[in-house]
Amino acid sequence: MPDLPSKVRAWLETSGFPLEMQAAAAFREAGFEVRQSTTYADPISEKGREIDVLANDPDFLGFTDLATVVECKSNPSPWVVLTANDVLEGYNRLRARAVFTPRAIGALHRHKIDQLSVMPHLQASGRCGYALRQAFSKGNDPGYEAAMAVLSACKGIFPPKSVGGWDTIAASLPVIVVSAPIFECELISDGNLHLTEVMHADFLFSARIPENVSCLIRVVRVDAVRDTAVWAKQIMDRLRQDLQSEERRLLEELKAKPGKRGAA
To answer: Cα dist. 133→26, 68, 169, 201, 244 in Å?
Structure first.
C-alpha cells in the first residue's frame, strides 16, 4: 500500500495545483510580484472571487497599477481557438490587448499613437481568434467560462476609483494557461476546416461586466508559459513608461489637495 505522502502527491498531481504552481513560477521568474489564490470583488455580483495567479508589475510609488491575471485549466481535453482573418478589422487596437481603467486609456490617448512605446506590443494583425472552446465538452463550455472568469478578474482587480478617491491609473492583461494541446481552427478556401496545433493563441472576447468590455485573451500551453510571462513583462514595462506623465499629473493633483494621499 502506498504511504500517505504518496497518496497525497498522487492526488495533487491530478488536481490543478501543479499547473498553477508552474504558471506562478514563470511569472515570478519574469520579474512579477506573484500572488496565488488571491481574491477580488466580482464587478457584477460584488462577491469575492478567486484568481488562480495574480502577477503584479512592481511599482515603488504605488500610483500606477499593472498586472497580468492568469486563469489555469488542467483538463486533459484539447482546446480549440476559432479563428478568422477579419476579427480585428475596425477594432481599436490600443484597447484590444489589455483592460484599462478610464484614466489609463485617456492618458494613452493623449499621446500620439505611433509614439507610444507599448504600441508594437498591443497591435495585432492578420488571423485572430474570436472564441475559445474545449473539444469533447458537453453542457457549459469550459472555454467560455475560463474567458469570462479571467476577463471579470481583469475588470475587478483595479476599480476606477482608489480608496483615496482619485481616478486610478491601471491596466490588466488576461492570460489562460492550459495543460492540454491548443489548436487554431479556420475555414479554408475549399470549405473545409483546417486545424493547426500551436503553443499559444489570442482570441477576442467580449462580455458585459456590467458594461461591455472587450479584450484579446492569450491562451497558452504550460510548456510555453515562460515565454508568455516574458512577453507580458515587456508590455508592462512599456506601459509604465508611457503612463509616467499621467502619474506625474496625479502626483501634482494630490499635492494640490492635502489629505487626499493620506486617505488611501
So the answer is: 25, 22, 33, 12, 39
Q: What is the DSSP letter of 263?
A: G
Query: What residues contact 126, with CB distance under 8 A and at least 6 apart?
Result: 85
Helix/strand/coil (H/E/C) assignment for every residue in 157-216: CCCCECCCCCECEEEEEEEEEECCCEEEEEECCCCCEEEEEECEEEEEEEEECCCEEEEE
**Ramachandran angles phi, psi of 105, nearest 5°:** -70, -35
- Give 224's DSSP letter: G
Q: Cell 481574491 identifies what position?
A: 39
pLDDT band (50, 70, 90) for residue 124: low
DSSP 8-state class, residue 106: H
In the predicted model, what is the mean pLDDT of residues 251-255? 85
Pairing of strands 64-73, 48-56: antiparallel
Cell of 136: 469533447
